[in-house]
# Entry
Amino acid sequence: KMLSRLSLRMLARPQLTFLPRRGVLHLEDRAKDPGYKRDELPQNLNTYDENILEETEVITRMKYVLNQFKLVDLKTLDWDKNFEDVGLDSLDQTAIITSFEKEFHCIFEDTVFDTFDNFNQVKKQIIQGVGS
# Structure
């Protein structure tokens, strides 16, 4: 009896389905649809370039990393304030910036790494670095 309750609960749960990353079905997925007519689809559906990050996405991911450290209050964070003014020492700065490197799959050169004074500079470098 308990097994039947569990199986009924599992059947009642919504099933997870894969959704495209940007909300637009790929042409290959539409081609599988029986009502698909190739001439009706615009040809420029998948023009999103994966190598370009929008500023809002960079900010969101940076906030995610900063939230993991719990050293900075994200509600009152001024992106142009120096790290020292925000309350971060040099070890905290290094840990956070290397976490940004891991999050964005990039490596800052040592000369660039040492010149970061605030989060806005890091954000700009990430936007420039990922696009190049």
The two ends are 61 Å apart (CA to CA). The CA atoms of residues 53 and 97 lie 18 Å apart. The chain has a mean pLDDT of 74. The chain has two domains: 2-40, 55-131.
